[in-house]
Specification:
The complex is a heterotrimer of chains A (351), B (423) and C (66).
Chain A (H helix, E strand, L loop, with lengths): L5 E8 L16 E4 L5 H8 L3 E9 L8 H14 L4 E4 L6 H18 L3 E5 L5 H5 L4 E4 L7 H16 L7 H4 L7 E5 L4 H14 L28 E6 L3 E3 L15 E4 L11 E3 L7 H5 L7 H9 L5 E2 L2 E4 L7 H17 L4 E5 L2
Parallel strand pairs in A: 1-3, 1-4, 4-5, 5-6, 8-12, 8-13, 8-14
Antiparallel strand pairs in A: 2-3, 9-11, 10-13
Helix pairs in contact in A: 1-5, 2-3
Chain B lengths: L1 E8 L2 E4 L4 E3 L2 E4 L1 H8 L5 E9 L5 E10 L2 E5 L18 E7 L1 E6 L8 E4 L14 E9 L5 H20 L9 E6 L10 E9 L5 E5 L2 E2 L6 E3 L9 E5 L9 H5 L2 H9 L5 E10 L3 H17 L4 E5 L6 H14 L3 E8 L20 E6 L3 E4 L4 E4 L21 E4 L15 E5 L1
Parallel strand pairs in B: 1-8, 2-4, 6-23, 9-11, 13-18, 13-19, 19-20, 20-21
Antiparallel strand pairs in B: 1-12, 3-4, 5-11, 6-9, 6-10, 7-8, 14-15, 14-17, 16-18, 22-24
Chain C lengths: L1 E4 L2 H7 L3 E4 L14 H19 L7 E2 L3
Parallel strand pairs in C: 1-2, 2-3
Classes of the chains: A alpha/beta (351), B alpha/beta (423), C alpha/beta (66).
Chain lengths: 351, 423, 66
């Protein structure tokens, strides 16, 4: 018999493992040797090359309390089997199961550095949560799609097990993770542009190299009720910093934001402040930083009682090629600080 | 308008007693060139260094790159209306020292210039690693205002290009390229226009059309040949990766490619120049006007290029939307700022009509550049230039830096072969 | 929160719910072409508009032009 080339651990929920239904949905991880339930046709599809050495089973509701903690408890039993690949599901359209699969894959990937894959239906809520960090294969929306899902999963597990390169989503059959990767091709951008235009004009199919992004939406915050007693804070992405840029916020692709105390400052002047933003003509902001961070106006409105108080600190970063991911991180932290300080409203200025 | 470009192939550059071209080598009289450049008394010091393809040399901080050319016949002079005599560019004969380039070096604002590696992994990302570069290192007089400093460096580069270009005036070209928009008789060929946007956002973010600040123009028509004589000159440097250098304008690849296919599978009917300004009202005005021009000239399809990123993404999207609403099909060329992990949204704005987009790469990709034997200029700005960060300069003199800092790495005229795909 | 920015389409695209259009990219709350006192007036007006936006209940993205 040929030696197995790679070891696989499979994750299933209590139902697919044949342990029980809803009444068993709270069970913590238990291990079964070899392949179980849908793992059996999966093992068959893997053939002689790959072996499902163990199956980890958890109840779907076990993850409900604390997803991350639950995922951690899956990692330990998996590590004991030293697998080359970890595969979870398929979860089809089951939300709790999808989350358990995604979370387990994510934890195993991060803690053990093992390639992971799961599979679910496109509307499974877990897809948006985990698609960036975990390979997820599309399936039908119910167990009726099992026969179709298994060979697709097996093909992917095999690729990971044999350490083959995973190609584009369209070629290898997984949900695009939304990660842009650079590479050199044989034709220049200009040549490709003319090609694409001619295809478009002729009504021939073409593939855009970049799909328009979607941005998330947040619920509008409630209005500020009593402005005269409210504390308002200033935040800017325009790069206004104390002279010398003491915290070295980058002129582009900012990796940080900063907080500065403006208690007792009534006007921003060029001897004390400057801009460090590299994406706009800095001359005007350097001559009068209030043009980007309107401190003088806020002080005037504080003085005449329009607002209760200008918050003692302002927050700044540079919005020039700064990634959305970083901006989101900064925003979260800044919001938490403002909330903790009982700030009622924020004016965010951008250039 | 018929323009012949006489291509003189330059394979090497050396210092010499006389500035001349002999057997494919460009010889530069260093003293004379420095003297020429220092005629502008806003510059306190100037030096010249040479960099050849394959050398272990890094040039930084780079402001602009210019190709030496000379008008042999036809109206106007090189860079008309800016340093050359005014006249409509783009006809007659212009000789080109192909394989040579002037590189202007020196810290202006300090965080907007870029770098060129002549060898190693960084060389792949810049077309200038393959040129024989004459680097002008320029220092301003103490206390020179930023606007004057930028202008002094810009003019120095253009003058040097003209000075070196003169060596080609009486040479017999190795190759001849002919640019003429001959009338197209095949009416089935689609009429294609090119919308060429120019950055015009202020100090170190400006471009000049026949010497006119592009901030002040309304979109207009231009013949594609005009750019080949330097009708468009760059005064900007936001991020090195997607700045259109004078070299890029002179060698606009979209114009080249449209010309190549003119009469074969398309009818290249013209170029519309537009600007990229700093107010919403200006963006609406210019994109309204430019899209109307595209419609008026009868285009069926249009290629639109952008310069810069961030707020100019809005101009790009407005142009796309308005031109498509006229029933004209568009393709956009843009780079991406998807974060170092490639996982962030790449553009600041989006419209549903933008369904045909060419990506020239994610500018935030981090690259490890090895230390170089020789630095032309100064390595220190690496930590502050766009794409650099604290810790960019490693202890052995190498650089960990985004490709954003490399001249031309993601040029949105589609000059290079870099792209990004979604995984 | 209210976003004071000149390029309103971007503010809308990225999801700000209260938006006040600013003057220009390099000087969102200023205008170097104006004499100092007029510029300060302009800035005060814009900030007051931003505060009015904060005091307005909104259900969806709203641009406060007036």
């Amino acid at each position: 018999m040929a030696e197995k080339k790679y070891r696989v651990v499979h994750y299933l929920n209590q139902f697919y493992a044949g342990i029980g239904g809803e009444e068993k949905a709270n069970i913590p991880p238990l291990i079964k040797e070899g392949a179980v339930g849908p793992g059996r046709p999966l093992q068959q599809a893997l053939g002689e090359e790959g072996e499902i050495v163990a199956t980890v089973v958890c109840g779907d509701s076990y993850f409900a309390e604390n997803i991350e903690a639950a995922a951690e408890t899956v990692v330990e039993p998996v590590s004991r089997y030293k697998p080359d690949v970890f595969v979870a599901g398929p979860a089809f359209n089951a939300g709790r199961y999808g989350i358990a699969c995604g979370a387990s894959c994510s934890a195993v990937s991060k803690k053990l550095g093992i390639p992971v894959i799961t599979a679910m239906y496109k509307e499974n809520p877990a897809l948006e949560l985990y698609r960036k960090e975990v390979y997820i294969i599309p399936t039908a929306n119910s167990v009726r799609g099992m026969a179709e899902a298994i060979p697709k999963m097996a093909g992917f597990v095999r690729k990971l097990g044999l350490r083959q390169e995973i190609g584009l989503p369209e070629a290898d059959g997984y949900f695009p993770r939304g990660i842009r990767v650079n590479r050199f091709v044989s034709r220049t951008g200009a040549e490709r542009a003319v090609d694409m235009l001619l295809s478009k004009l002729r009504g021939e199919p073409f593939q855009t190299e970049y799909l328009m992004p979607t941005f998330d939406r947040v619920l509008p915050s409630p209005m500020v009720k009593e402005l005269q007693s409210a504390t308002i804070a200033l935040v800017t992405s325009g790069g206004i910093v104390p002279l010398g840029n003491p915290d070295r916020i980058e002129a582009a692709s900012a990796s940080k934001f900063a907080e500065y105390n403006i208690a007792g400052v009534y006007d921003l002047t060029p001897d004390a402040f400057q801009t460090c933003h590299g994406g706009y003509d800095p001359v005007y902001a350097n001559n009068d930083p209030d043009r980007v961070l309107p401190l003088d106006a806020m002080r005037a409105l504080e003085k005449d009682g329009t607002i209760g108080k200008l918050y003692d600190h302002y927050y700044v970063t540079v919005g020039n090629a700064t990634s959305v991911a970083n901006a989101q991180k900064f925003g979260k932290v800044i919001a938490e600080k403002l909330k903790a300080a009982d700030v009622d409203g924020v004016i965010l200025t951008s250039t | 308008m018929r323009l012949e470009l006489g291509i003189i192939k330059i394979e090497d550059v050396q210092f010499g007693e006389e500035t001349t071209v002999r057997n494919g080598t460009l010889y530069v009289n260093k003293k004379e060139l420095i003297g020429l450049v220092r005629q502008d008394d806003r510059l306190s010091e100037a030096d010249v260094e040479l960099a050849r393809p394959g050398e272990k040399v890094r040039i930084m901080p780079v402001k602009d790159v210019i190709e030496p050319r000379v008008k042999v016949s036809g109206s106007g002079e090189l860079f008309p209306g800016i340093i050359g005599k005014m006249g409509t560019a783009g006809s007659g004969t212009t000789n080109v020292l192909r394989g040579a380039a002037i590189v202007t070096v020196g810290r202006i604002v300090g965080y907007q210039e870029g770098l060129i590696d002549m060898s190693g992994p960084g060389a792949e990302y810049s077309p200038f690693s393959q040129a024989n570069n004459v680097a002008l290192i320029l220092h301003p007089v103490h206390g020179l205002a930023p606007h004057a400093h930028e202008e002094a460096v810009r003019f120095a580069g253009l003058r040097a290009a003209v000075y070196l270009g003169k060596t080609a005036k009486d040479l017999a070209p190795d190759e001849l390229e002919v640019y003429e928009l001959s009338p197209v008789t095949d009416t089935s060929l689609p009429k294609v226009a090119y919308v060429y946007t120019l950055l015009s956002e202020g100090l170190l973010h400006d471009t000049y059309l026949y010497g006119v600040d592009a901030k002040k123009i309304l979109p207009s028509l231009i013949h594609p040949n005009e750019v080949m004589d330097g009708a468009i000159v760059s005064g900007n440097c936001v991020s090195a990766c997607d700045k259109h250098t004078a070299y890029h304008h002179l060698n606009n690849p979209v114009i080249k490619e449209l010309y190549r296919r003119h009469g074969k599978d398309l009818n290249f009917i013209g170029v519309v120049i537009s600007n990229l300004n700093v107010t919403l009202a200006d963006k609406e005005r210019s994109t309204d006007y430019a899209s109307k021009l595209v419609k008026l000239i009868g285009a069926e399809g249009a290629i639109i290029t952008e310069e810069g990123f961030g707020n100019p993404d809005t101009d790009l999207m407005m142009l796309c939307k308005k031109i498509e609403e006229y029933g004209i099909k568009t393709v956009l060329i843009t780079d991406e700022y998807a974060g170092r992990d490639g996982g962030s949204q790449s553009l600041a704005d989006a419209v549903s009509q933008a369904d045909a987009v060419i990506s020239v790469g994610n500018a935030n990709e981090v690259i490890a550049l090895p230390p170089m034997k020789r630095i032309i200029g100064d390595l220190k700005p690496a930590e502050v230039i766009a794409g650099g960060f604290v810790g960019s300069v490693t202890t052995d003199g190498g650089l960990n830096i985004e490709i954003q800092a490399i001249m031309g790495a993601t040029c949105q005229l589609g000059f290079g072969k870099l792209t990004a795909r979604g995984y | 929160m209210v976003h004071v920015a000149s390029i309103v389409p971007i503010s809308l695209t990225v999801g700000a719910n209260r938006i006040v259009p600013a003057v220009a990219i390099p000087y969102p709350l200023g205008n170097p072409a104006l004499p100092e006192d007029e510029e300060r007036e302009l800035r005060l007006k814009l900030v007051k508009k931003a505060l009015r936006a904060l005091q307005t209940e909104v259900e969806k993205q709203t641009v406060f032009e007036e």
